[in-house]
Amino acid sequence: MTTKETTGDPSAADVRDALTGPQLALQSVYLKDCSYEAPNGPRIDGTWNPQISLDLNTTVNAITTELREVILTVTVSAKHAEVTVFLVEVKQAGIFMMRNLSEVELARAFGSICPSVLFPYARAAVSNLVTQGGFPQFLLPPVNFDALQTRGDANGAVTKN
Predict the structure, then answer these.
(1) 121-156 burial, b if ≥16 CB within 10 A, otherwise e?
(2) pTM for this predicted structure
(3) Tens digits of per-residue pLDDT, 35-92?
(4) Fewer Cβ within 10 Å of end Cβ, the chain: N or C?
């Protein structure tokens, strides 16, 4: 039985694989746009039990051949007795370096991986806007973007520009 001794230095093959293999790396995250509306402010008649509607959309813009801007749009509306209580839209964006990805890997990056990275930032922005509007703390539930991508593959849920 032989053992391979490693020195901690990457071999030429390891370096080549790292340079030519699939790569996906976050470069930056930023709030691209946000909107908040509360037609009547935080005045609610009766018990606070709104009907919440959540809409998610992902848009991808090519910056260079390797850099993509991915924008996750989160729209939340709350209604109480058919009256809109608040409407929030957050466009959370990120710049991602994508190198040597197959079409299948790109589709997974656009539909699942990148939105999963951006969602916690969008979730915090929505929560802050609603709270600053005078409403009780509001936290969006976790979202399984893998499941949404699987369901959305037939619907074309990702918009590429």
Answers:
(1) bbbebbbbbbeebebeebebeebebeebbeebeeee
(2) 0.82
(3) 999 998 888 777 778 899 999 999 999 999 999 999 999 999 999 888 899 999 999 9
(4) N
